[in-house]
Amino acid sequence: MAKTILLHSTVTCPACRFQSDEEMPVDSCQYFYECKNCAVILKPLKGDCCVFCSYGTVKCPPIQQGESCCG
Length: 71
Known about the structure:
Layout: E1 8-12, E2 19-23, E3 33-34, E4 41-42, H1 51-55, H2 61-64
Antiparallel strand pairs: 1-2, 3-4
């Protein structure tokens, strides 16, 4: 049975704690993300492939599928 892939994640800015619901791209990684509240530019934490894996409530689609991301 195929695993259901979630395409929405809530990103939390570590600088101001603002949360924003975002749709994740399925065909690319999102390495940069600008907070809609304080305009800080987020980048993935060491060991993570994208901002969703670092700051989101849901990991990016390739990681959800058990694949390497941006490979």
